[in-house]
Amino acid sequence: MHGFGMTTMRSERSSPRLTELTDVIRDRVRAGVDQAHTADLVKEALRPFLDVPGLLTEEQRRGDPERYLQHVLHVEPDASFSVVALVWLPGQQTPVHDHVAWCVTGVYQGAESEQHYRLCESERGPFLVPGELATNHAGETCGFAPPGDIHRVRNCGTGTAISLHVYGADIGELGTSVRRVYDLPVHE
C-alpha cells in the first residue's frame, strides 16, 4: 500500500518483547488522561525498549529504496493506539504534515531530524514559519498532541534509521496518522 510518500507493510509476527511493549503502552493509554499527558506517559513507556535487540524481525527492519517504509506492528483491538516501525534510508523524509491524534516516536537505530513549523496567515494567504529543529538519536523519544504538531521528519544520518511510532489512532484502518499535508510557502 502506498500513500503519503511511504510504503505500508502489515506485519503478522511479533517478538515477545514487542508484545511486552504493547502491554505496557496499553496500561498507559488506559490511564484516561488528556492527549498531551497520554503522549508523555507513552514516551516514558517506550524509552526502555529502544535498545532491546530482537524487538523487530529482520523483515521489520527492511527499508525501501523508493520511499520510507512503514511496518504496522500492532493495532489495538479497541483502536485506541497503533505501533509502527518506520524504516528510513539516508535522506528519506516526510512531507510537512500534522496528525489526527497524539504521537510518540522513539529512535531505535540511527538518527532522525524533526523540523517543526508554525502555520501563519497573511493578506496573501497561509504560510509556514520554521520553528525548532531537533535531532533524535537511538534511544531518544519525543511526543506531542495536536494542535501545534506540524513537522517534517527525515533520516539525517548516513545509514538506515529505524523509529518506533505509537499513534493514538487505528493505523490499520486509516493507513496513516496524517491529518493534513502542508504544501505552503515557508517564510523565515
From TrEMBL:
Q: Which InterPro entries match?
A: CDO_1 (IPR010300), RmlC-like_jellyroll (IPR014710), RmlC_Cupin_sf (IPR011051)
What CDD domains would the database entry show?
cupin_CDO (cd10548)
Asked whether the UniProt record includes Iron among its keywords, one would answer yes
What's a Pfam family in this record? CDO_I
Q: Which GO terms describe its molecular function?
A: ferrous iron binding; oxidoreductase activity, acting on single donors with incorporation of molecular oxygen, incorporation of two atoms of oxygen
Residues recorded as binding Fe cation, renumbered to this chain, are: 97, 99, 151
Site of the 3'-(S-cysteinyl)-tyrosine (Cys-Tyr) crosslink? 103-167
Keyword terms, alphabetized: Dioxygenase, Iron, Metal-binding, Oxidoreductase, Thioether bond
Family per UniProt?
A: Belongs to the cysteine dioxygenase family.
Return the PANTHER family for the record: CYSTEINE DIOXYGENASE (PTHR12918), CYSTEINE DIOXYGENASE TYPE 1 (PTHR12918:SF1)
Q: From the Swiss-Prot or TrEMBL record, give the protein name.
A: Predicted metal-dependent enzyme of the double-stranded beta helix superfamily
Q: Which species is the source of this protein?
A: Actinopolyspora righensis
